[in-house]
Amino acid sequence: MADARRPIAISCGEPAGIGPELAQKAWAALGTDIPFFLIGDPAHVPHGPVAIIADAAEAIDAARSGLPVLPHIFDGLLSLGTPNPRHAESVISAIARGVDLVQSGAASALCTAPIHKKALQDGAGFAHPGHTEYLAHLAGVTRVVMMLASDQLRVVPATIHIPLNNVTTVLSAPLLTQTLRITHAGLIRDFGIPAPRIAVAGLNPHAGEGGKMGTEEIALITPVLDALRTEGLDLKGPLSADTMFHAAARAGYDAAVCMYHDQALIPIKTLDFDRGVNVTLGLPFIRTSPDHGTALDIAGQGVANPSSMIEALKMAARMSAARNT
After folding, report:
1. Could you report the per-residue pLDDT of 244-292, keeping only the tens digit for each?
2. Is residue 269 part of an annotated ligand binding site?
3. Which structural domains are found in the chain, ordered by start?
4. Residues of the chain above pLDDT 90, percent
5. Each residue's pLDDT tens digit, 188-218
6. Cβ(24)–Cβ(87) below 8 Å
7. 161 annotated to a ligand binding site
8. Residue 206 marked as a ligand binder
9. Could you tell me where the DSSP H helices lie in 13-87?
10. CA quadruple 282, 286, 292, 295: dihedral positive or negative?
């Protein structure tokens, strides 16, 4: 009997890195349990059988014999560990092709293998800071939220890749309000949590300790939380970040919103380094990604750990099911 599930699209990412290897290992681990296909050059896939497909609908049957690959041919030689500038345009267009497939309904979600941002900038003048911003551009969305998620913890940084001494300049009431609203909506739509509980970290040690260690909690964070509580959001905080992440504390919330990058990412990477998944909330489609980079230093050695890619595919499948419930 034909499988009615729509497959997940994986954009190949930087082919000189570990993306194609991870896709192959994910297929070896998941088989037909979670249907997916790689958008990439079949010649870049190492070790193991490949099943060439002409469209996304063929992926489910093709997975019985090999990793389904929707051919996206690259110009120029592949040298593992060293990005080829001639590949940059194809890396970018593979992402755009994945977005087209998921927006058309041919794919249920997009899982993106890691890109090498400098290679894209050098080879194609890539104008976006990273994957997330490019996906938001393709979707016509002005504000999205990065979540790192695993079975043990979900975290959202309100500010992301900026120097620590710029956080107080960038952090604002509108930014925090948008972050919390998008997180709340994403937990309902994508994770099937009807009444999300969100813990919110303070910025300063001990959440400012009543203004003795900083006033951002009093002047900025608390007013935002109070206003959103009147809209029905279940928000705890601002909390002292050093007591938010032990097991008993984590049991009391569904996601934690933090004020800066490391405040959010250190806990999840300590708790579940190999299985953390990068999720973009606020897009009109589902996007997940392994929580690591291209690993150029180990490309081609066959030692890349596929755990985060496998978890990214599993999470994409669960999110798709939640949206369709």
Report:
1. 999 999 999 999 999 999 999 999 999 998 899 999 999 999 999 998 8
2. yes
3. 1-144+283-325 (3.40.718.10), 152-271 (3.40.718.10)
4. 91
5. 999 999 999 999 999 999 999 999 999 999 9
6. no
7. yes
8. yes
9. 19-30, 59-62
10. negative
